[in-house]
Amino acid sequence: MGFTYYFRVFLVRLKEKFQTNELLPMKVFKSILIFVFILGLLGCEEEPKIADTVSTFYFIRHAEKDRSDSENIDPELTQKGLGRAMHWAEILDEVPIDAIYSTDYERTQMTAAPMAVKKNLTVQIYDPRLIDIEQFKAENLNKKVFIVGHSNSTPEFVNKMIGQDKYGLIDDHQNGSLFIVEIINGIATDMRLNFNCNCPD
Question: Which of 76, 85, 100, 138 has its CA 20 to 30 A from that of 108?
Fold first, then answer.
């Protein structure tokens, strides 16, 4: 029994007392009852809803790299790779990207470059071995983020984001996979799409 119940009991007793002595006008009593009724309605209002938080992450592996020198550990993209990099920027043209991340390699940064130019953003360098997942999520809350990685680091990053060991290594000649992770109020969902690129070699 809350405040409203005891206040109503008090009013009933007050009415009985003052009706006998005719000291409390009925208009005053009705006004008090209306006031109590309004208080009761206000007390029943639902608490304001907390706004949803929605963060979306687009993960890709770098585009086709130059394999002509097997000893080069940091090759650039081939002509086809450059075409695919531009293709990614076209695929996500309608998405309002807020941040772009790339590992510190020529092939990943070259893959991210067309998107950075189109969205007028600076590419942020990250090390997948040192990434703090919770901090990364917090820093990109309510953002749409484009992340370029590698055949091993990209699925590992996605797995950490969704909290599952779901995706394995990307095939070495597969450069068209797009992983989308959406986190709504802390709950992650994911999907993997594949895009062909009819880009010239």
Answer: 138
Cα(171)–Cα(92) distance, integer angstroms = 23
Phi, psi of 114 (to 5 degrees): -60, -40
Instruction: Report the C-alpha gap between 162 and 25 in whole angstroms.
Output: 68
pTM: 0.77
Cβ proximity of 150 and 61 under 8 Å: yes
Helices (H), 45-132: 79-91, 106-119
Enter the tokens of residue 191: 């999907």
**CA distances for 169 relative to 91, 112, 158, 159, 174, angstroms:** 23, 21, 11, 11, 10
SS3 label, residue 168: coil
Cα–Cα dist 77/74, whole Å: 10
The C-alpha torsion from 192 through 73 and 81 to 182, rounded to 10°, is: 20
